[in-house]
Amino acid sequence: MNQNQSEIRYLTPPTVEVKKKKYCRFKKNKIRYVDYKDPEFLKKFLNEQGRILPRRLTGTSLKFQRKVATAVKRARHLAILPFVTDLLK
Fold first, then answer.
1. Which of 3, 6, 28, 40 sits in a 20 to 30 Å window from 89, CA-based?
2. Is residue 50 situated within a structural domain?
3. Which residues is 46 bridged to in the sheet?
4. For position 28, which CATH number holds?
5. 15 φ/ψ angles, rounded to the nearest 5 degrees
6. Residue 70 lies in a domain
7. Greatest CA separation found in the chain?
């Protein structure tokens, strides 16, 4: 019985989740200015409903998250991006 207890077998090997390091794409690519006239770039920071994604999901630094938010709001005001939508992407 002791020999049987020591032999523990798994159906699938236990997986260890490796979290990928988040990075600010603005600092990595040395982007200084967030252009509000480029809707394709701004869509990367929006979800399907058109809401701005939070920093914890995108990995954007605080400084650039503020710039992205103002750029998205300006683009919405000029009707480049929609305020609300069903499927944006």
1. 28
2. yes
3. 52
4. 4.10.640.10
5. -100, 140
6. yes
7. 75
* C-beta separation of 32 from 64 below 8 A: no
**Domain presence at residue 39:** yes
For the full predicted model, state whether its pTM sits above 0.85: no
Residue recorded with tokens 């609300």? 84
Among the listed residues 73, 47, 70, 57, the one whose alpha carbon sits nearest the alpha carbon of residue 25: 57
Domain span holding position 38? 21-89
How many domains does the chain contain in total? 1
Write the pLDDT tens digit of every residue in 27-84.
999 999 999 999 999 999 999 999 999 999 999 999 999 999 999 999 999 999 999 8
- Residue 31's Cβ-count burial label (10 Å; 0-12, 13-18, 19+) is middle
Q: Which residue has the tokens 């040395």?
A: 30
| AA letter at 40 | E
